[in-house]
Design a protein that fits this description.
Layout: H1 2-10, E1 34-36, H2 38-51, E2 60-62, E3 79-85, E4 90-96, E5 100-106, E6 111-114, E7 117-120, E8 126-129, E9 135-138, E10 145-151, H3 153-158, E11 164-166, H4 180-185, E12 206-207, H5 209-218, E13 230-233, E14 248-254, E15 263-265, E16 269-275, E17 277-282, E18 285-290, E19 294-297, E20 303-307, E21 314-320, H6 322-327, E22 333-335, E23 347-348
Parallel strand pairs: 18-23
Antiparallel strand pairs: 1-19, 2-3, 3-10, 4-9, 4-11, 5-8, 5-10, 6-7, 6-9, 8-12, 13-14, 14-21, 15-22, 16-19, 16-21, 17-18, 17-20
The structure holds fe (ii) ion (FE2) (2 copies).
């Protein structure tokens, strides 16, 4: 028998009877819940600005999930990074099949140019770089600009669909007016009828904080979701669906003192704390967070958010791979029913 197994393995064959435990009853991700506190990120960003020239690459600090053993991944499908562009710098034009989003953390007036259109950044803005779109970033202001990047790199790698190309000049030529996509597609519930193209990624490249905040503030008294609070999804203006084929972006407000109920679902997420202070309990571990912290949530982990301030709203921005799960019919969600929807806290996350 053992001789049979040896010969079988040597021939690249395994019996299903040897692998029974691989078909798990529910997802068992290798990625773990983790948090990168803002103080750490700010210090690393400052040091990177002094130590690392911009060169041919981007000065972007990639957040590696400790459970994924050195893989270029924050979750199983997405990478989050913190990127710094100093005054006068240009991050050269290139394009790649991974889709990217930027959520602006600090600095105003720098730009990203996407396929010939420049969009200018302000804190809280969400900017898209669809798959295979040429893009470069520039900071002509006198202050540094910092943003969070979110890309679907691990997913694209798993699908063996990675392509990357450098442009032969520093900047891709501008062919459209600044913020052209906002002028065309940035109208609430009003779509230009003469535009016949329906790209998979949202044709609106900039979702401004001013508009996002207006929507959140207008809904602050809404009796919203018991698990996610006042959670709004950024949408594709023509289809009303997720703004990118592989990633959804959410902004959610948790009212002062609110303790939301626990649930779990397939799909992973990376949260960025835009403002406020609170905590998220993930599979019994308490992650206490404040402005600027980044938290990663693996698939199927029980999680619940709370705002620990009694005066100020807390706001979380997140990237999620939910559109992929939904497209494949694999999205599942389940609420915790025991303990009135709250988990027992068994540990507290500490920065090592
Ligand atoms: Fe890029
Ligand atoms: Fe959730």
């Amino acid at each position: 028998m053992s001789d049979f197994h040896e010969r079988m393995h040597a021939a690249g064959i395994y019996g299903l009877w040897e692998l029974a435990s691989k078909m798990t009853k529910h997802p068992e991700p290798r990625a773990i819940a983790h948090m990168w506190p803002s103080a750490l990120l700010e210090a690393m960003v400052r040091e990177a600005g002094e130590a690392v020239p911009i060169g041919e690459e981007r000065r972007a600090l990639q957040l590696f999930n400790p459970g994924l053993e050195g893989q270029w991944a924050t979750t199983n499908t997405m990478i989050a990074a913190i990127q710094l562009l100093l005054p006068g710098e240009v991050a050269r034009a290139h394009r790649h099949t991974p889709t990217a989003i930027r959520f602006i953390m600090e600095g105003e007036g720098a730009y990203t140019s996407v396929d010939g259109e420049r969009v200018y950044m302000a804190p809280g803005d969400l900017i898209l770089t669809p798959s295979w779109a040429w893009h470069d970033h520039g900071n002509a202001t006198d202050k540094p600009v910092v943003w969070m990047d979110g890309l679907d790199v691990p997913l694209i790698q798993a699908l063996n669909a990675m392509f990357f190309q450098m442009y032969d000049q520093e900047k891709f030529p501008l062919t459209k007016p600044d913020n052209a996509s906002a002028a065309l597609h940035g109208h609430v519930s009003l779509s230009p009828t003469w535009v016949k193209e329906r790209p998979r990624s949202s044709p609106l490249l900039l979702y401004s904080w001013a508009q996002t905040w207006r929507s959140l503030a207008g809904l602050r008294d809404a009796d919203a979701d018991p698990h996610d609070g006042i959670a709004l999804e950024y949408t594709h203006p023509q289809t009303g669906r997720a703004l990118l084929p592989t990633m959804a972006c959410w902004i959610q407000m948790i009212r002062p003192g609110a303790r939301l109920r626990a649930h779990r679902h397939t799909g992973s997420a990376v949260y960025y704390v835009v403002q406020g202070a609170g905590e998220t309990i993930i599979d019994g571990c308490r992650f206490a967070w404040g402005r600027g912290d980044v938290i990663t949530l693996p698939s199927w982990a029980l999680h619940e958010h709370a705002n620990t301030s009694t005066h100020d709203a807390a706001i979380l921005f997140s990237i999620q791979d939910r559109p992929v799960l939904e497209a494949l019919g694999l999205f599942r969600e389940e609420a915790l029913t025991e303990g009135e929807g709250h988990q027992a806290v068994t540990s507290t996350f500490k920065v090592t």
